[in-house]
Amino acid sequence: MVAYTLEDTVALLVLLVLVVTGTTLAFQACTAQWGNAAFGGAAICVVALGIAAQFASGGLVDDVPPLYALPRWAAIALGSAALAGAVTLLLRAVRRGRVVYPQMS
Q: Is 70 helix (H, G, I), strand (E, B) or coil?
């Protein structure tokens, strides 16, 4: 059984939001015609904030008894399904032409 506490849940959700935000800003920095430094700097700040948030969640949220427990096989199945879904969405975006190489000027 994989047990999750409130601290684990908060830390994982904050990290997920900050990783998605940092990745989006990094892609904007690589593909934007203007403001590359601004997007790159913001991406670095978001990554640093993600690391700091992990320590802050440990201090701000009490580590109480587990909120929920998930069998190990269910955690692996859920993670595999999420990964397969992400790959499927990326492949569909590439096929539709929404993911393109930046034009060099």
A: strand
Give the pLDDT confidence of 5-30 residue by residue, as tens digits: 888 888 888 888 888 888 888 777 77
Per-residue buried b or exposed e for 38-75, using 16+ beta carbons within 10 Å of the residue's own CB: ebbebbeebbeebeebeeebeeeeeeeeeeeeeeeeee
The two tokens of residue 45 are 């700040």
- Residue 4 sits at φ, ψ, to 5 deg, of -120, 130
The residue type found at 88 is: T
Residue 32's φ and ψ, nearest 5 degrees, are: -75, 145
How far does the chain reach from its first CA to its final CA, in angstroms?
A: 54
Is residue 30 within 8 A of residue 91, CB to CB? The reply is: no
Indicate the DSSP class of residue 46.
H
| Length reported for the chain | 105
